[in-house]
Write a structure and sequence with these properties.
Blueprint lengths: L19 H15 L6 E4 L13 E8 L2 E8 L10 E5 L8 H6 L4 E3 L11 E3 L9 E5 L9 E2 L7 E2 H18 L8 E6 L2 H18 L7 E7 L5 H14 L5 H11 L11 H14 L16 E2 L11 E2 L18 H12 L2 H6 L19 E2 L6 H7 L5 E7 L7 H9 L4 E11 L2 E11 L2 E8 L3 H7 L1
Parallel strand pairs: 4-7, 4-10, 9-14, 10-11, 11-15, 15-18
Antiparallel strand pairs: 1-2, 2-3, 3-7, 3-8, 5-6, 12-13, 16-17, 17-18
Helix pairs in contact: 3-4, 4-10, 5-11, 6-7
Length: 465
């Protein structure tokens, strides 16, 4: 098993953010308020594709934030929800639904891809889900993601900074409606591009608590998986990663460093030697699956929205290399097929009825909506991490060591730039007696950061943790 500091946080002896008597009074006031408030969530006991009643408590709903309706899935801890921590979880993109995290990463169900024979995809229970010991809010953010939508045309546009503010307001309103979770430890978590949002949301919670904004949240820390953090650091690290993974030669690597001055962002077209070297690099890596360089690359596919009444195996695809059905040779399995099942399932009318989806607002659900109106106005959150490192927070940052979207090389660089003190130096951690990755732990004035690599892509990394 992973070392103790790698486990999901449980109830701890950390100092409470507010005195107990004030907490009880606040809870009482919020309970009185909630008695006259229309709750946004509805319980879901049955889902198409799963036989019988769900073996966990699932709630879905919308919360209004600035003329936007943000959709969420909430799964209560299957352990002790009165003591287990609460997570707000966001998936990257931007524009990827949190359903991705629920089904493909940390939730209690997964598609039964091995037995899929067509039609509506079916689920099987995933026994190692994080919801065994944590309650998790899976949030579709920013607006335009998943089932989240806006009631006004000019409110569909979002940005890094605006999305973080909306997610914070969502959390504040959700906790006001569900005050019993105010007493448990709160963590903000996300992966990939959500590495931009999660630190910002965490900072807003810290500042809100310090300003006395209601409700006071029992924030303990945040968690990041292969997180996008700094546009320059992350992009430049891809060249170093490619060299370490033997994807490019020593000679090309040295040529890139010299000709491009180790800066591969916004290359000057007049620098012809750098351009030529970078083009050669791109030829070497263009046919790799960037999420996991050891997996086969398969073209992205989604169900044809105009043919939903036809057999569900009808897909839009690039016929050159998409594997339409599960191959007979297991080694040629493509993750894309697994992803395609989510489109078939989430766009089904019976499924949307079961999830209490408001009809007419999202006509074509996408696992990752690449057409959202979104401005990337935050190029780096390193300074946000530096600010948070002055607070008493617990932090876990993990990187799949095969991930080329956000390579571990860049993640290690910005962590080192925080100048934290190493309290447990680089060492392996184990699962079933086998090395599962490597970890190092930092601490500074009550701020504790654990960094871990996982011998896998980031999708598998969540299954390990």
């Amino acid at each position: 098993m992973p070392p103790a500091n790698m486990q999901l946080p449980r109830k701890s002896s950390l100092n409470s953010l507010i005195p107990l008597q004030r907490l009880n009074l606040r809870l009482l006031l919020l309970l009185i308020l909630s008695a006259t408030t229309a709750f946004s969530g509805q319980i879901v006991k049955y889902l198409p594709g799963y036989d019988g009643e769900l073996p966990f408590k699932l709630e879905t709903g919308y919360i209004s934030v600035n003329e936007s309706e943000l959709f969420y899935y909430f799964i209560e801890s299957q352990g002790n929800p009165e003591e287990d921590p609460l997570f707000l979880w966001l998936t990257g993109g931007p524009g990827c639904s949190s359903f991705n995290g629920l089904i493909y990463e940390i939730g209690p169900m997964e598609f039964d891809i091995d037995n899929y024979k067509g039609g509506l995809p079916r689920f099987k229970y995933y026994p190692y889900a994080w919801t065994k010991t944590a309650s998790i809010i899976f949030l579709d953010a920013p607006v335009g993601t998943g089932f989240s939508y806006s009631t006004k045309s000019d409110a569909w546009a979002s940005s890094d900074s605006e999305s973080a503010k909306q997610s914070y307001e969502f959390l504040r309103k959700w906790l006001t409606e569900n005050p019993k979770y105010l007493a448990v430890e709160l963590f903000i978590g996300g992966d990939s591009y959500s590495g931009i949002s999660v630190p910002q949301i965490t900072k807003l919670v810290v500042e809100g608590n310090e300003a006395g904004a209601q409700p006071i949240m029992n924030l303990i820390g945040y968690l990041l998986g292969s997180p996008r953090t700094d546009s320059v650091i992350d992009e430049n690290s891809k060249i170093i990663f490619a060299h370490r993974m033997a994807l490019i030669s020593d000679e090309l690597y040295e040529d890139l460093k010299v000709q491009c001055n180790e800066n591969y962002v916004n290359i000057d077209p007049a620098n012809t030697k750098c351009v030529a070297a970078y083009e050669l690099y791109e030829k070497c890596v263009k046919d790799l699956f960037r999420n996991d360089i050891l997996e086969p690359k398969c073209t992205f596919a989604s169900p044809d929205v105009d043919q939903r009444e036809m057999p569900h195996r009808a897909l839009q695809e690039d016929h050159t290399n998409f594997i339409l059905s599960p191959p007979k040779i297991p080694d040629l399995w493509c993750r894309t097929f697994n992803y395609a099942l989510s489109y078939m399932w989430a766009n089904n009318d019976q499924v949307q009825d079961a999830l209490h989806i408001r009809k007419g607002y999202v006509k074509d659900w996408k696992r990752c909506n690449k057409s959202i109106s979104y401005t990337k106005d935050v190029l780096s959150v390193v300074d946000v991490h530096r600010y948070l490192s002055t607070k008493r927070l617990q932090v876990l940052v993990e990187s799949g060591d095969r991930d080329m979207v956000v390579p571990f090389v860049g993640t290690e660089k910005w962590i080192k730039s925080l100048n934290l003190t190493i309290v447990n130096d680089w060492r392996p951690w184990f699962v079933d007696g086998q090395i599962a990755g490597y970890t190092v732990k930092y601490s500074e004035h009550g701020y504790r950061l654990t960094y871990a690599t996982v011998k896998a892509s980031k999708q598998f990394a969540y299954r390990v943790f």
